[in-house]
């Protein structure tokens, strides 16, 4: 029974491969990651994101420093304060810590949203250029050849140089 399944799978693969060869589709490849990293717009977007991230990190670090200072102060004064006052201060510190955590999450969401906002038009521009070059050169399929992308043999036409030329980079 196992041999029959293996033969059936092999037959299906053979028929599919034969059909693909008979169709004589033209296939090209391009490393989209390499293309995007070469685009000046991407460098500008990455710099903007880095600046925004550094701003958020500085704000959060400032809040963390303030929390640590307040914690140290409250810890040093704990012996001279009443139990109720110390409990009130502990609740205050927990609230500040919670606010910092929420600020970190909000910053992360805003960074992701900004990244999507900045990168989407760049990605669309690259895709349009790839489609234009592939169409002009008569390719039916363009496969992303980035490392780890699943492309094992890249003997077809590499469109990277042509697409860079189309984009003026």
Describe the structure.
This protein is mostly helical and 169 residues long. It has one domain: Skp domain (Protein Binding, DinI Protein, Chain A, 2-Layer Sandwich). It contains 5 helices and 3 strands; from the N terminus they run αβαααββα. The chain has a 3-stranded parallel β-sheet. Helix 3 (40-77) packs antiparallel against helix 4 and helix 4 (83-136) packs across helix 5 (160-167). The radius of gyration is 28 Å and the shape is rod-shaped. Mean pLDDT is 85; it is low at 8-12.
In a few lines, what is going on in this structure?
The protein has 169 residues and is mainly alpha-helical. The chain has helices spanning 2-23, 32-38, 40-77, 83-136, 160-167, and strands at residues 27-30, 141-144, 157-158.
